[in-house]
Design goal:
Distance between the termini: 32 Å
Shape: globular
Oligomer: single chain
Strand content: 5-15%
Number of strands: 4
Radius of gyration: 17 Å
Largest sheet: 2 strands, antiparallel
Strand order of the largest sheet: 1-2
Helix content: 40-55%
Length: 172
């Protein structure tokens, strides 16, 4: 949907998970074998992955200042609850560098929890946002200097929003 570079590090996993649903068309790649394979999901794991996806979308909307706009009201609580069952382990390498890693690398929630923990430590977590457009909500990584991007792409969602605002001013 957007022309932005993928999010850095583990945030790319979260970005790609959130972007498995095209809100405008309703197409959900988690419903296909290719989409499930991309995340290592069995058919019985799809419902939990969709719940995790929507909780992550709510967090991304909150990062852009849009909490509660067209998403489940308990998005943060849902994400907290889902990640509570995703244990992480501390690993230390020969150089003494500590990292968090999933206790179960096959579990999507554990991989997401490790990615969030790493992004928080790097200071990048709050830059993963969801598009302000209600018919989009695509996840993107905000690389703008001030961290104030509002849309996944200015060429589509930003232009539509600005045109709607223009028309509202002309008729109002």
């Amino acid at each position: 949907m957007n022309d932005r570079a993928p999010a850095p590090g583990g945030l790319a996993l979260i970005e790609s998970l959130v972007n498995t649903l095209d809100i405008e068309t309703g197409a959900d790649s988690l419903d296909t074998a290719d989409g499930r394979d991309a995340f290592g999901l069995a058919v019985e794991d799809v419902a939990a992955a969709k719940e995790l996806r929507e909780a992550l979308r709510a967090a991304c909307l909150a990062h852009g200042g849009h909490a509660g706009h067209g998403v489940a009201p308990d998005g943060a609580g849902a994400l907290d609850r889902l990640l509570a069952h995703a244990p992480l382990l501390v690993g230390v390498d020969e150089a003494g560098t500590a990292t968090l890693r999933p206790a179960d690398p096959a579990a999507l929630a554990s991989r997401v929890a490790a990615a969030i923990a790493a992004a928080v430590a790097e200071g990048t977590w709050l830059r993963l946002k969801a598009c302000e457009a209600e018919d989009c909500r695509w996840a993107y990584y905000d690389r703008s200097p001030a961290g104030r991007s509002r849309w996944c792409t200015m060429a589509v969602c930003g232009s539509r929003a600005k045109m709607r605002a223009y028309r509202a001013r002309r008729t109002g």
